[in-house]
Amino acid sequence: MHSPKLLLEGVTYRYRAGRQSVEALAGIDLTVNAGEFVTIIGPSGCGKSTLFNIIAGVEEPTGGTIMLDGEVNGERTGKTGYMPQQPLLLPWRTVEENVMLGLDIRRVPRRLAREQAHELLKRFGLSEFADHYPASLSGGMSQRVALLRTVLFHPSFLLLDEPFGALDALTRLSLQMWLQELWQSLQSSILFITHDVREAILLSDRIYIFSARPARVLRVVRVELPRPRRPEQLATPAAASLEQELISLLLKEQRA
Amino acid sequence: MNGGASDTLRKLASYGPAIILATLLLVLWESYVRLAQVSPFILPAPTAMLQALVANWGLLYEHTLQTLVETLIGLAISVVLGLLIAVLLDLSPWVRRALYPLLLTSQTIPMVALAPLLLVWFGYGLLPKVLLVILYCFFPIAVACADGLLSVEPELIKVLRSMRASRWQILWLVRLPGALPAFFSGLRIAVTYSVTGAIVGEYVGAEKGLGLYMETSANSFAMANVLAAVLITVVLTILLFGLVALCERLALPWYFTQARMRR
């Protein structure tokens, strides 16, 4: 067995709000193996996004150890592809230029960066939009572009924070299938946040259920549906009973 | 493109009401002066103004050129200075707190009082006029730009930091381009003051320029000549304003696409 892509042990996070010290994360243990699709699901405001900021290196935890790419508590910025819920494309850059943003930051020569962005857009069916400005894209299309920007910066480990949360059901489904294809063809490891139990079951190898704030891991379940997954599989008895189980677990937390 | 052409036409048509109103006011002015037989020493008719413009064109042209040069130099320096100040204000809350009150104070000085002082300090040449233009123009540019730099989404900054972007990369790749629309808003306000700034400087003492021409004409009660110079000032300012709008269109094609999409 290879060492995992990401290993969290007892990660805690407290912050000060006025005079009070608020506990956001109460000791998170979590593993993402290489090539694995892991989802975190939990009540809103439970601290999932804080955890992502910590993993991406934008914030430091109060305690615990983080092993990323085998390095313990080292520098983490630049080693993940972090994508928040909003696409946050730069309106003055075309689709292609947006996708190459990460390479600009790495100071990859322009021509080379453009070539790579072009290649990626072609590979995932967006080359016809390469010269469009983001203003002319639909919500789903913007999210695809934002995902490719993330992928081009760091394809091997993606942190996706509710990337499809703001989309309508049909667009969401088509993006879920697109993401699955992307994940399999790039052999990335993905850590994914969602509120949507069906989305979690459809996409994940394993699901972490978080408690309400301060967040801890309530349960970890493995999704044993064959790959590649199809939306129809959500109707199978195994998937349906898992869905019910997760929903009742989350409902209890929501009330708490 | 078809859309572009019809856009231009619609744009021109949208000036229609303004042109009609202005023409109406000019006609009213002209008929009042003629019917009431107002003395040309008090209020010349618009036609008299145009006659003065044509008759003195050779001389006016020289003065206009001088004013234009002062204005453009002042504006250019204001743009650089405004951008620099915006970036400085952005460096840290400390710099902002120290610098902002001073900048604001600079705008409370009555320029008519300052102009003679500048004349005493720097003489009759170009410098005091350029300084006045700068004093009028840098502030709107600096303030608009500083606001523009702050307008970036905090989530986007997080994404960039997760990519290990340096502070300067974030400024250069995201915040400055994002502040450009605000910069142009500031610049548009600045150009409307710019010509006036140069003229105030010339009015108190100069060897050449529209301000000097206005002053000497007013002293000899050649009101039509004063108004001719005013007309040139107006046209010059509108042309500069149009030039800025054109630059904005060329520099920010994305901004106008966005605006069109939202309509």
UniProtKB/TrEMBL annotation, chain A:
One of its GO terms (molecular function) is ATP binding. Gene3D superfamilies: P-loop containing nucleotide triphosphate hydrolases. InterPro entries: AAA+_ATPase, ABC_transporter-like_ATP-bd, ABC_transporter-like_CS, ABC_transporter_ATP-bind, P-loop_NTPase. Residues 6-237 form the ABC transporter domain. Pfam families: ABC_tran. Keywords: ATP-binding, Nucleotide-binding, Transport. PANTHER family: ABC TRANSPORTER ATP-BINDING PROTEIN, TAURINE IMPORT ATP-BINDING PROTEIN-RELATED. This is Nitrate ABC transporter ATP-binding protein. The lineage of its organism: Bacteria, Bacillati, Chloroflexota, Ktedonobacteria, Thermogemmatisporales.
TrEMBL record, chain B:
The keyword Transmembrane helix applies. The chain crosses the membrane at residues 12-29, 72-91, 98-124, 130-150, 170-191, 222-246. Residues 64-245 form the ABC transmembrane type-1 domain. It is a multi-pass membrane protein. Keywords: Cell membrane, Membrane, Transmembrane, Transmembrane helix, Transport. Gene3D superfamilies: MetI-like. The keyword Glycoprotein does not apply. It comes from the Bacteria. Its main location: membrane. It is found in: Cell membrane. PANTHER family: ABC TRANSPORTER PERMEASE PROTEIN HI_0355-RELATED, ALKANE SULFONATE ABC TRANSPORTER-RELATED, MEMBRANE SUBUNIT. This is Nitrate ABC transporter permease.
